[in-house]
Fold Efflux transporter, RND family, MFP subunit.
Amino acid sequence: MKKPLVLIVGSTFILLIGIVVWGLNFSSKTQDADSKLTAEMMAKSTSKKSQLPPAVSLFKVTNQTFSQYIVLTGTIEPTKVASLASPAEGPILNLVVREGDTVNLGQEILRIGRTHAADSLQTSAAEEVRKQVLNLKRIETLVKQHTLPEEQLDEALSSLEKAKAALSQAKQALNDYIVTVPWSGIISKVLVSDGHFVIPRSPLVEMYDPDSLVLRFSVAEAQALVLKKGHKVKATFDGLAGQEFELEIIRAYPDLDRKLRTRLFEASLPANEFIPGMFARIRVVQQEHKNTLVIPIDTLQVQGKDKSVFVVTDNIVTRRLVETGLEQDDQIEVLSGLKAGEIIVLTGIERVKNGSAVRVLEQPAENNSTGVEK
């Protein structure tokens, strides 16, 4: 009884092992089939994608005015300035100006308090003149009476002239206590206030002539000899956003800064609301070509000495050799090899070949570079 039972159990166990092995083998084959099917589908999808022409964007070639320029910065500065200093010693009195005030030629802006000695000097000099006048009259009378010789009259006249000269000097000394402006202008800085005690040559007030404002800028040595008096520059100012001014160089300084190796230039300003210290961005045109072809540098292919672009006709590209000229920022001039109106590849160049078809993503772009004028 035991042997048949053992045989039945053993057979059942072997059967179960066989079923498990068969199931594992079937699952493996199914997975292999699924993987193969997935790979085939991906390959077909990739094949379909690879059959599409490469996508590109285009650029339309047109005639432009193209400039090669250098970019500089500058500052508005007055060329006519004055620093008024104290002509005498004393306290500041009657200061009547502040920064930004407009003043006229000869206008009194402050006084310096006089000392008692200064007033006494003028009084003494005036008294001396009065005495010499009386003395002259007395001597004239005596000379007419032949009591005194005429030489005494000459001496009296000489003494009177000396007394008058001393009085004039005393009055001039008092005028030194009144400070007036030398010409019409604008007060830029006031360095004292009422009650401030000053000594001779102490700075009091600074002023400038608004009609003397210029745009002052420096140019590196490499371009220092390119610019001349009369040369035109274009400038924009942060304080006058949206406006561009064409200015004329009116002064070229004769030498270079020994440390910075730069040359200073000045350009005239129009009658606008400019103030000293305004910051300017300047474009100085070195060369300008009118009615020329200009393309983005990114459209250009360089192989050794050869330069070429891809011209698109009916969605077919053709490599075209070109000759280039001026270059500025991301733009370059084309001297030969292209015509106005032709379409060239702008982006996607790395995916195209000579004679291949392309798929256009967008309409041809036109040039809007700062170096280009339409």
Observations:
- The domain at 81-208 is CATH 2.40.50.100 (OB fold (Dihydrolipoamide Acetyltransferase, E2P)).
- The CA atoms of residues 111 and 178 lie 5 Å apart.
- Helices lie at 2-50, 116-144, 150-175.
- The first strand starts at residue 55 and ends at 60.
